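Troubleshooting log. The previous run stalled partway through. Resubmitting the same three chains, unchanged.
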Amino acid sequence: MKKIWSIGLNTFKESFRKKMMYILLVFALIVIGASKFFGFLTAEEELKMIKDVSFSTIEFFGALMAIFGSLYAISTEIERKTIYTLLTKPISRSDFVLGKFFGMAMILLVNFILISLFFIGLLIFKHSPPDIDVLKTLVLIFVELIMISSITLSLGTFSSDAFNVICSFFLYIVGHLTSYGRELVERTENVILKGLGDMLYTILPNYENFNIRDKVVVGVSVNWAYVGNTVLYGVLYIAIALFIALYFFERREI
Amino acid sequence: MRRKAWPYLLIGILLFLPLGIVQIRVDYERKVQDLESNLVLMPGQMAGSLVLGGFKGLAADLLWLNMEEYWHTGQHYKMLPLLETVSWLQPNYILVWSIGGWHMAYNIYAEVKDPNEKQFWYDQGIKFLKKGISYNPDKYDLYFELGWTYYNKGKDYPNAVAMLEKAIKFPHPEYVNDVLAHAYEKNGQIDKAIKEWEYIRDNFVTFVPVAERMLFNLKTKGTTIPKENKD
Amino acid sequence: MSIISTRDLTKIYVLGKNREVVGLNRANLEVNEGEIFGILGPNGSGKTTCLKLLLGILFPTSGEAEILGRPPYDTEMKKQVGFLPENPYYYDYLNGPELLTFYGNLFNIDHGLLARRIDHLLELVELNDARRLALRHYSKGMLERIGLAASLVNDPRILILDEPTTGLDPIGCRDTRNLLLKLKGQGKTILLSSHFLSEVERVCDRIAIFHRGNLLATGTLAELNARYQADNLEDLFVKTISVFDNPETGQPGAAQ
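Second attempt completed without errors. Output:
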């Protein structure tokens, strides 16, 4: 465990050198800050605007951070050959992969907290302190980001950076549309198509599960059972992605 | 000579089973809590998501701003497609429906000269509010808006009463009962009006003086409105 | 007592359809405890492949490799091994002590002991003055030296070095040589690969000669010189390779 922590901490510290993260962070803060300037709306409309913009921004920029951060996590170590020294130390290949994952999770957590605090500060400034539903929405977005990160990390254990980035973005888009796809498939008569559709629905990452924004911004509440189930979904999917990563990395020659 | 890796793959694949089960639960909760109820009713949701992904809300806000711009510059007809689109993207946003209905039945109604056109816009407003209710059937807001429009604009008291009676079934502010009581009276249901005022008097502290006055007038004169001020 | 051994260790690289390259062909190697063993050969002869197979970075197509009787992926075994890769490259935003601390933490070494050892190692490789300097400002020679320190952070029983003198000036080479002899004096076993014949000559107890993935000869310099009737290492080198290339005539000629 201590070894995983060491590698994770090292990965985390290394991210401070990555300019990409700073750029994304600053952009996210600018966009959220800009939402304040729609001052000619009524208070209710303005608040909805701020929430809409902020949630979407946190999710979108968070996804970019998750993908780009995890993309190079393993491949740079291989390219720069720092991995040779690491793998000849008494750490298993699993330690390495899990260490990278925790490092990425820490990076995302720190950035996520920064952006969220800014958003919450803005809400407080507008005399509308965040209620529990806002926090639920944020929790779900965070779990979604970790899930995206774990998938990209997993892809990185066996594919090139180019393939990885295309695949990750593709899955991000498709993952938001899976429920619609399923609706379409459910209306067909073809049993084979239905079976295939169900299988795809289970295998593909259903990012829409984490989206309760549409309801929360108009003041509809979502219960904890839903949040709990969705977090469980995220955790299971992350576990699957990591096991697959461990499988491929264990067999990888460097 | 390498460590056995296949157990990892096996576990990873086996985990899809509990994942599928959890997904079923999540889908169920999404239906029950109305997080995706509009899929079947509104292909617009699908198109909206396809194009905008998580930015649906943002798009709706921007279109709303546009609509307000048109309102302030008096371009009423241009407001309509925007109202349709915003309500299409975010059907749970009550404000869209209530303001939309208000614009149609009141503001545009006032702007047009031809009586037939006026009637058209009143009908449009009613239709719009009814559509809003179909997506938000568990909130008092739009029942009240529709009821008020029937009562105040259309003088359609039977329908007003019907809507307001629905509104009070859900958590609502006190003035809804007030309007209902007046609607009963206008609809000729004096007994019900009295009952409603009594309810108001017994439950809403701030309304007690008003309620008492109304009850006094109803019981003694049969109307709450003095002869000179009758509409 | 052989502390590192390989049995018919083979690695075939598959580069595409019907294209295979033999990285290592049935190598049988035995390294005894306490000796400095050098593996020589031109580039592409299989030296690095052999080391990578021993360390578990590559997986053999067939055959076995063992260190301390354990397979290459064994983490317990790795606690007693130190490795210096060719052209080492490290996390360049760290400085010397930070790098050594990071690696040290992977061994579960006691903090106090680790700190003292790091001080000692930095002295040993003469990088004490550059303690605060980030690795990205290091010269090539400095990187080699910090790499050596990193490979010693766990006070390993076995040291494996891939081309340890690449990029070092003659003084650096001499210092490394002396250090290796000193480490041998402490009872450590050292396996190194190199194509600098003069260095190998001065330091190694026994050597192995590789050529095109084949282990051609193993033994002390004296034994091999006698066997191949060579005068010095360079001569030995040439003769063993030509025997391999032309087994009938034993003459240097067109390679098969």
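Takeaways: The radius of gyration of chain A is 20 Å. Chain A has a mean pLDDT of 88.
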